[in-house]
Write a structure and sequence with these properties.
heterotrimer, A mainly alpha (173), B mainly alpha (334), C mainly alpha (100), A: 173 residues, mainly alpha, Four Helix Bundle (Hemerythrin (Met), subunit A), C: 100 residues, Helix Hairpins, 3 helices, 76% helix, elongated
């Protein structure tokens, strides 16, 4: 194994192991903590893929915004965890079968994966121009419409969340 | 061999920066007590050593030898690592700050964003410290802190975006070099709205007066710090002062020209060019740290709803307006 | 050099951990966390493929996925808070008013 492969193996084991730790926790605050560690590892993996901007965005957006929001709601609701109730929903075995079935479909389809022709954004070009500059140029030239739509998609939920979470006093809004 | 050489150089750099920062924290507390004492017509610490200069070490040894109390209701694992989660990202963000033109530990392409990422990580420590203590006061301190830091991070990020827009880069050294081309060699006069927004948000981010609601002692005992004692308390204390140092450094680098001095000064007094850049950098940083103490001594604490109102209804619209203005000026005027 | 298939395996593994949790755990917030895990696995696959095919477009999609995740979580958590006010429980099986 070469050095990059050893590093990748570390990230592979850690990310999958941490994901398992997340989903098996009974206490949700602990789950969020393991999730935070997992996000930091995924950010490290992005550095390997020459995507430093995404490594930072992963931390700022996922860890700094989404998970904090999660933790905040968790503390706000402050539910008592029951220590004895089953972790799983009734009839989870059938649902697990569905997962296995989807996994089979996935394995069959991934076997037919064909890598297309190489694009023009070589590693040297990204390193020379800087990742943020390359991303910015692509975003504001080729993807300007999706970018505006994503702005709208972010704007509407903001209003929706405010309306939903608003406490209604005395019946009127 | 080359690799080993860089490794050793980097380890020495890290050791120097961390050692100097820890010493800085020790004397920043002394400086704070002296400054606030003078502002309130007191003397501040005088007893330990000449002029009380050994006071920080006395405090340090005291907190190290105190009993480490763990509340019975606490979630022990989280209670133990919460101070570390606060301190580690704060110390890490020291590594991307250029102290002078040559002296920087990690010269990465996304320097400024890295500091923002670290700042958003250290929020966790505060929330978890509040949650894991198993006490009402600590819990409310943690929740308040979470709400406050999330709200003010947005205003801070947007006001920094205007700096990125002006400089055309997120590398801290390029931001400083871009500022040097402007008449006053700094962005503060040009981006005055962004600078004021950042200054206010920096106070809220570091939980300092007038926004120190998470640890408002009249209502919440000591907020999320209530149940901590001994060296765990010292870790929180340490990270607060390091965070102040980092916020002051960001203000210096992004708005006040970092290690450079304005060109019109060096035109008159050319011998100042021989003064090492780190001197000017630290001079500016300590000015902002003094400003922190000054505000603490003069401005009373805000109420929590006022804090939220300032964050969402004043600072965020102002910083968005500033961003639009800068984009307009950059596109059509410059 | 790390082969692309390793990244695909990692992404698939993460996706199925998330998917399994999404279908089987009873806690509503845990379902949200597993959705985030699935989003992340998709992002790993997109960015890895973008890197190996030397094309920036995969990364653009990953960017939009992240933005979408943020929007989705905001609404989802607001919905959970709204539901929680009427029925103080996070157990999925308690939300059965529409069952008739």
């Amino acid at each position: 194994m070469t050095l990059p492969q050893i590093f990748f193996a570390y990230f592979f084991v850690m990310i999958l192991g941490l994901a398992v730790m997340v989903v098996t926790r009974r206490n949700l605050v602990h789950a969020v903590l393991w999730m935070l560690l997992m996000f930091v590892h995924i950010g490290g993996l992005y550095l390997f893929l020459n995507a430093e901007f995404f490594a930072i965005i992963q931390i700022i957006v996922y860890a700094g915004a989404i998970l904090v929001m999660f933790l905040f709601v968790l503390l706000l609701l402050n539910v008592k965890q029951s220590l004895t109730a089953s972790l799983f929903i009734r009839g989870w075995q059938g649902r697990a079968m569905a997962v296995v079935f989807l996994l089979l479909v996935f394995v069959i389809s991934i076997k037919n994966l064909v890598i297309g022709p190489r694009g023009e954004y070589s590693i040297q070009r990204i390193e020379q121009q800087g990742h943020i500059k390359v991303i910015g140029e692509a975003m504001f030239n080729d993807y300007i419409l999706p970018f505006m739509i994503i702005g709208l998609i972010l704007f509407v939920p903001m209003i929706a969340a405010a309306v939903l979470a608003m406490r209604r006093h005395d019946g009127s809004s | 061999m080359e690799f080993l050489y860089t490794l050793i150089i980097n380890i020495i750099k890290v050791a120097v920066v961390f050692g100097v920062t820890l010493l800085h924290v020790a004397y920043a507390t002394y400086f704070e007590r002296k400054v606030i004492g003078r502002m309130q017509c007191r003397l501040g610490p005088t007893e330990v050593g000449p002029m009380g200069l050994l006071q920080p070490f006395a405090d340090m040894f005291k907190s190290l030898f105190k009993e480490d109390i763990i509340p019975t209701k606490a979630d022990k694992a989280v209670f133990f690592i919460a101070p570390v989660i606060v301190l580690a990202p704060t110390m890490t963000s020291l590594s991307v700050i250029p102290f002078s033109e040559k002296f920087i530990i990690a010269d990465i392409n996304v320097g400024m964003l890295f500091i923002l990422a670290c700042a958003s990580l250290s929020v966790y420590g505060i929330i978890l410290a509040g949650w894991s203590s198993g006490s009402k006061y600590a819990f409310f301190g943690g929740i308040r802190s979470a709400a406050q830091v999330i709200s003010y991070e947005i205003a801070m990020g947007i006001s920094l975006a205007s700096v990125f827009l002006m400089a055309g880069s997120v590398r801290l050294d390029e931001i400083v070099k871009a500022q040097y081309e402007y008449p006053l060699s700094m962005y503060a006069p040009h981006l005055i709205i962004g600078f004021v927004v950042f200054l206010i948000a920096a106070f809220a981010e570091t939980n300092r007066t007038p926004f120190d609601l998470p640890e408002a002692e009249t209502e919440l005992v000591a907020g999320y710090l209530t149940e901590y004692s001994g060296f765990r308390y010292a870790l929180f204390f340490l990270s607060e002062y390091v965070a102040m140092f980092i916020m002051s450094s960001i203000m210096t680098l992004c708005f006040f020209g970092g290690w450079t001095i304005p060109r019109f000064i060096t035109d008159i007094l050319p011998f100042l060019l021989y003064v090492p850049g780190i001197f000017w950098f630290l001079l500016k940083v300590y000015f902002f740290i003094f400003f922190y103490y000054w505000v603490r001594a003069t401005v009373p604490r805000y109420r929590f709803d006022q804090l939220m109102k300032i964050g969402w209804k004043v600072l965020i619209p102002l910083s968005l307006f500033n961003l639009l203005l800068v984009a307009f000026v950059k596109r059509f005027v410059l | 050099m790390v082969p692309l298939s390793w990244y695909i395996v990692l992404s698939a593994g993460l996706f199925f951990i998330g998917f399994f949790t999404f279908l089987t755990r009873r806690n509503v917030l845990m379902m949200f966390l597993s959705v985030e895990i699935m989003f992340n696995s998709i992002n790993i696959a997109l960015i890895a493929m973008s890197h190996y095919m030397q094309d920036i477009h995969g990364q653009m999609i990953a960017f939009f996925v992240i933005a979408n995740a943020a929007a989705g979580v905001a609404v989802g958590l607001a919905l959970i808070i709204a539901v929680f006010r009427n029925k103080p429980s996070l157990n999925l099986e308690d939300f059965n008013l529409l069952k008739g």
